[in-house]
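User: Structure please.
Assistant: Input sequence and predicted structure:
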Amino acid sequence: MTPAPTRPQAPARTHAADGTAEKKPPTRAWATRLVIVGIILAALNLRPAITSLGSLMEEVRVGLGMSGTLAGLLTSVPPLCFAIFGVMAPRLARRFGPSAVVCAGMAAIATGLAIRPFLGGTVGFLAASALALMGIAVSNVLMPVIVKRWFPEKVGSMTGLYSMALALGTSTAAAVTVPMTDALGGNWRTGLAVWAVLAVVAVVPWVPLVRDRGAGSPASAVAASAGHVPAAVRREDADLRITRSRTAWALACFFGLQATAAYITMGWMPQIFRDAGVPAGEAGVLLAVTMAMGVPLAFVIPRVATRLPHQGPVVMVLGACGLAGYAGLYLAPAGGAWVWALLLGVSNCSFPLALTMVGMRAKSGAGVAKLSAFAQSTGYLISIPGPILVGVLYQHSGGWELPIVLMAALMVPQIVVGVLAGRNRTVEDEVAAAA
């Protein structure tokens, strides 16, 4: 019985030695565990740079002498950086491998968070923030690629785990930054810098994964992420013109509109409640509840989505929750505040659904990388004007009626493009048909 398993192994090694397409080496249990730990720790670090700053914005503004306008524009810097730097991720992944890029991304987050409070001025603060956001941007794009590479049969489960950890990091940083700053002596610089420790921890599991990229293969980890990938397919992936795919455009618009809704919620929902007579402390708790809804649902929704041939029904349910939440904010913001917060929390789970569809709408790891970069970069560009426009409408109308109508109106195209993006097709097939 011994010779039987050994015979197929020799050709595999010879095949690899020829420099032709080779199989991905058997996944060792320790490597799989490291990937899971790495994904969780990376996801935990993808939002504290933003939400910790939001919690201490007033202290930062005063400490750095920022004008109110500059501080307001600071809220649009994250999606702008995500759009600009996210485009670089596929090229970097092809050159160095996705694990190496994510490892470097975690290091960039740690460095940016550690130095930005201590550079002494607004320009230095923004530059260090951009460094951290660059690390977040490339990691944002490559997380679906890592999931596709290591867990091709469990895209929904692993995307759910990643999204759940991301939501947990988002809500935790928002909730504990202020009390932690007080416990550390009340200095906002220390309160912001302490989040670098979590990012340093996130670097650790990715270091051995950088070394273990697959039997010294010269092929990129992205191209090999689907396992045994013929050279012709790799060339086809490299030539994939993602902008020719209608599904890619639909997914990019869906990503952008859900991001718009999320940034509006994070930036303005507490103020809506406060203006309606809800105490400031309770308004903050309501926002935390909205963000916390993403922790359990971000794990459930991707698992449900991957079991469906068409993700349109999930898109419509989430959109309906958003429309109901906005209707409640318009008609009785204080009277049903907790219900509206819960409904908007459910609606905000369009983010893990979008990530899941990125992994499902492409055949190969290279396709996922290109689709992820395109959808996220284009989407974050789309999301930039939304929160600013809501602020302008609020300032000029003197109330929340017009901004809430705008939020509800944006939910309609979000549902439409989400249904289009949820159709059972791949970008590779669409691009081939359009050629």
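DSSP finds 25 helices and no strands in the chain.
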